[in-house]
Write a structure and sequence with these properties.
Number of helices of chain A: 10
CATH class of the largest domain in chain A: Alpha Beta
Low-confidence stretches of chain A: none
Helix content of chain A: 25-40%
Distance between the termini of chain A: 12 Å
Structural class of chain A: alpha/beta
Order of helices and strands of chain A: HEHEHEHEHEHEHEEHHEH
Largest sheet of chain A: 5 strands, parallel
Largest interface: A-B, 24 and 27 residues
CATH architecture of the largest domain in chain A: 3-Layer(aba) Sandwich
CATH topology of the largest domain in chain A: Rossmann fold
Oligomer: homotrimer
Strand order of the largest sheet of chain A: 7-6-5-8-9
Shape of chain A: globular
Chain lengths: 311, 311, 311
């Protein structure tokens, strides 16, 4: 049986490090800790979280910082490598071995693949991966699952579509893997150029059935959860190609006329124009709910790995 | 009758949104809360303030942050747009709808006119305008009023001169409007090029008498409060013109020999050389007192809009 | 007799402002406060520290911030001048007179010689020098002493070598002075180009014996404490000269075969390659211990100057 003790001192590097039972346990603790997101608490009083952001990510940084403050803890850190010792040529291993003297937990964001796992190997305090390279963003996957569970009451049995840039977007890699631990029908909708990489696909296909499409229209009527990600111009060698793709991967009221009435739309944010602003006020839109769920999920993780959950 | 309940959840966008009675009430609460600026308190424990500074303003940011800490709350935010999601093309509306999930109040500084009011329309939590565009800086106007009230014991009946750049300085627009709600004689002293804009003037003239001058010397003997602002070189097409103007809008001991003995000099800071350093040690100088009064006024506003004042 | 009362409200500008008895007292308080570095405390609850970093120094800033949080206080400030009012041309004197209205103590880092002392003259709250110009870094010297005392049980009677850039490194100047108050044998090991400046040397020589060397090898067998600093390429007019020097001022397992078994190696960090990574896992390596001792020493200083130590 999975319990709180299994998480104390643990690194959160990849969603793949967690079993289905462990993920379910985290989601259960998130549900229980949710009232503290409103009331605040002192359960991490005197504890310090370091946010080491080697690439900027205001949203993720503010989410972690708020989570720590809501639990009564303090926060140190930097939000840009330019202001850090890194500029003086210090290695990540040394940075981590310094910061662990100050902090009880390190939240790391880094442009390089594997940086979070590398840091965790050197650190004597737990490390949470807040995004490293193109591969992993485990807390985003957990908050996505938590949002689906909260909004739909379950994850199993749902038809879920991931749409947009499935090749480079780190959030969809972590999420697709996480979903493959559940009994879902997974639709991957992207232009050919931005299909999910074969190695990610193979891994997921070993557990659940996957349906690949290049258009959302034909499948939208059967979808329960539509997860939209941004398609970046820079990915296309040819602007004409980009212009074509862009139009057909944009969600607006017109296309939503074909959707189930209880469809929910998620997005990791920031959104540019891949979801029309007119959608914001419909019941489909749950992307801003995700933000609050991110706060709650991160509160649950911090409380768990710092040993503040007893059960 | 104005009471604390009138302020709970309220946005602070423009000084024009407040009646004379409401302003007087804020100043009264500032006076009452002043002891907490020294002792600290826990009346906003568990509450979170977000400082979203889309243009840097160390002074204003530190003032708000200190106010929140003195009340026992926590602070998240960013001090430069470069480190924020804005770089990724996110709209202000989306940024606000994300941050409101984290924070109980948003303090916004933005280079564009109207940005604070726009943000307030989207946010479900109160928004405080910490300066937007060239027009409004309402908390600066409130702290200026509080300083005058505290130092002179009253606002009504005073002769007050605003000097320097009255065209572009946002603090003087808010302050001139606020003063026009009181029974004061208002002197506007500026080079022709930097006269207060007609539309601001007309509005004020409908309530109080205004005297425009291009030199402070002739009127200084009758002034009770001299509010100095900086004249920026960039405003002048011609450096020779600037050099001429600069000299005659500089306050030093020599010119002050003509002042009333109980004149007080205010300045929104930062000061460059428009007030000579030799003035700092005279009893005229109250510009550093303003800093402390800014802290107190902002504590009062935060406590009021977050519902921590009961009466 | 030195007591806690001697430190209340005191500036920490230069190690030279402290007598041997005062330094010993600070080290004693550091030892006593050490348990709070783990448990946290509330002895500075409601107090605010401002970190004004006019040049970036992540390590030092995080150390001070953690120290303040561990004592229950709050922190405001900036980590880069670009985001501060300084950009608008404000003088350091004005910045300090503003910030003292917000903070109970100011921690200043500045590229100019004398900036900290200058700031302290204007500030009515205590100022701690967190590094200014090339001369002084008093809290680094104190943490170095504390590390030596803790690791060796004493300072008197030890043979201590300072190695590397002794000309420009501000930490070695403060440390060499501090050590000269004790009964130690001091070895200075550097390339000719980077010898300690004559004026620093003369001052120290008046109190203790000094031995200058250009190579560590010959003296290593008699050394108890080896303090390594980085040699920067930019100091050398000629890259060939730098390459030659660099090799012989690098500590690795090979050279350490000649060391005493209880030698300890210190380094102010960040380290680049002047200590080989293979040394990290040996008992010689104490440079990461210094980091924790820095936190403890700064907690002691903050508690002392803010009057939280009673004895």
């Amino acid at each position: 049986m999975v319990g709180a003790a299994d998480f104390v001192g643990r690194d959160i590097i990849s969603i793949k490090d967690f079993t289905r039972e462990e993920i379910d346990y985290i989601l259960k603790i998130a549900r229980e800790i949710e009232p503290l997101a409103r009331s605040g608490s002192d359960i991490l009083k005197g504890r310090i979280m370091a946010t080491l952001f080697f690439e900027p990510s205001t949203r993720t940084r503010l989410s972690f910082e708020t989570a720590m403050y809501k639990l009564g803890g303090s926060v140190i850190g930097f939000s840009e490598p330019e202001t850090s010792s890194v500029k003086k040529g210090e290695s990540l291993a040394d940075t981590v071995r310094v910061v662990e003297k100050y902090a009880d937990v390190i939240v790391l964001r880094h442009p390089s693949e594997g940086a979070a796992r590398f840091a965790a190997e050197y650190a004597s305090v737990p490390v949470i991966n807040a995004g490293s390279g193109a591969e992993e963003h485990p807390t985003q996957a957990l908050l996505d699952l938590y949002t689906i569970l909260k909004e739909k009451g379950r994850i199993n049995g749902l038809s879920i579509a991931l749409m947009g840039d499935l090749r480079y977007g780190r959030t969809v890699h972590s999420l697709a893997y996480a979903l493959s631990l559940y009994d879902v029908r997974l639709f991957l909708v992207s232009p050919d150029l931005l299909r999910m990489r074969r190695e990610v696909l193979e891994d997921i296909k070993s557990r659940i059935e996957i349906f690949e499409h290049t258009s959302i229209e034909e499948i939208l009527p059967e979808i329960d959860v539509l997860y939209v990600t941004r398609i970046q111009k820079e990915r296309f060698p040819d602007l004409a190609e980009y212009a074509k793709v862009r139009g057909s991967y944009r969600i607006d009221l017109n296309i939503l006329s074909k959707a189930k009435s209880d469809l929910i739309i998620l997005h990791p944010l920031p959104r540019v124009d891949e979801i029309a602003v007119e959608v914001d006020s419909t019941p489909f839109a749950r992307y801003f709910h995700q933000v609050e769920n991110g706060l709650i999920t991160r509160m649950a993780l911090l409380a768990l790995i710092l040993g503040a959950i007893k059960e």
